[in-house]
Structure formats: structure tokens, C-alpha cells
Write a structure and sequence with these properties.
The protein is an alpha+beta fold. It has a single domain, classed as Jelly Rolls, CATH 2.60.120. It has five helices and eight strands; from the N terminus they run H-H-E-E-E-E-E-E-E-E-H-H-H. The strands form two sheets. It has a four-stranded antiparallel sheet with strand order 1-8-3-6. A four-stranded antiparallel sheet has the order 2-7-4-5, with no helix packed on it. Helix 3 packs across helix 4. The longest helix is centred in the C-terminal third of the chain and has 20 residues. The N terminus is likely disordered.
């Protein structure tokens, strides 16, 4: 049975959810993307924007932030060299569910959604690790309640109650 929303993701799976790729694995990915640089404070992605693809960090640090319906920001995870930023919606270019900001000057590779799909097929062992991470990240977002619509209104409002029942 899946965990109820609001539960924290299993920390024992962090090595699968946030794998660190070797230099050789990173090099295999480079042919699917293009180099990118980010200055400290730059946003790689913002909530609601269409995903540009998967970011593979070569240097620097990037933090993933979750915003709730009231604008409160919660740090979720910090990524470093050899890690990739993406979630399941990245495969289709769907709108992203989190913000990602560079904590320091960073460099990496952007792998667009179509090339990410090609990578998963062409590099089966890497593709399996990437897919496992994407699935576990989506599950984690569901567990903490970071997905779905945010309803704004009085809890006793008939309109809000109708929308809650619909969703």
C-alpha cells in the first residue's frame, strides 16, 4: 500500500533517488546534450514552466525548492557534481513541480526531453538508473503532497468543497 500524503520519502532509497554518476557515465551522456553554465542565483527551472530537459551537473551546487500554495519555500535536496536534475515529467517536457536554483557558479549539460528518451534507450544500464530515480522522485513528491492542484478559498465554501470532491 502506498504511503499517505504528508509522509517523508524513505531515506534508505536516497542512493537510488539521487545517484552520483561516475566520470565515465557522465561522458556517455554528453553526446545527448549541450554544455550549460549557471551563475550563483540563476534558476535552472521554475515551478510551472515546461521542462527544458535533464540537467547533469559537472561542477557547482544546485538546490531544489518546493513552493506551496501560499508561497512558502522549502529546500528539498542539494545536488552536486555527477548528479542529474530531472523528474518523470522531464521525459515529455511537462511543467515542472519544483524550482531549481544554483547555489554557486555551476556547469553542466542540458539533455532535452527527446534526447533524454534517446539516452534511456541507447544506454540501457544508465537508462535504468535514470528511470528508477525519476520514478522514486515522483513518488517522493506525491508522498509529501507536492503534486496536484492547490485550492484557495474558505474550507467551508460550497465551491471549494465541490472542487475537493472532484479532485
Amino acid at each position: 500500500m502506498p504511503p499517505a500524503p504528508g509522509q517523508q520519502p524513505d531515506p534508505n532509497r536516497d542512493h537510488q533517488r539521487f545517484p552520483v554518476l561516475t566520470a565515465a557515465e557522465q561522458k556517455r551522456i554528453h553526446r545527448f546534450g549541450s554544455p550549460q553554465g549557471f551563475a550563483k542565483g540563476d534558476y535552472l527551472i521554475r515551478v510551472g514552466e515546461r521542462s527544458r530537459g535533464m540537467f547533469l551537473l559537472s561542477s557547482g551546487k544546485v538546490q531544489v525548492l518546493q513552493r506551496d500554495g501560499l508561497g512558502h519555500v522549502t529546500p528539498m535536496h542539494e545536488y552536486g557534481p555527477g548528479q542529474f536534475l530531472a523528474e518523470a515529467g522531464t521525459l515529455t517536457g511537462a511543467p515542472v513541480l519544483v524550482d531549481c536554483v544554483a547555489l554557486e557558479d555551476s556547469e553542466g549539460w542540458l539533455i532535452p526531453p527527446d534526447q533524454l528518451r534517446a539516452l534511456i534507450i541507447a544506454e540501457a544500464d544508465l537508462g535504468e538508473r535514470i528511470m528508477r530515480a525519476l520514478i522514486l522522485r515522483r513518488v517522493a513528491l506525491i508522498q509529501i503532497g507536492a503534486t496536484g492542484a492547490v485550492l484557495i478559498g474558505a474550507a467551508s465554501s460550497a465551491s471549494v468543497l465541490r472542487l475537493q470532491n472532484f479532485l
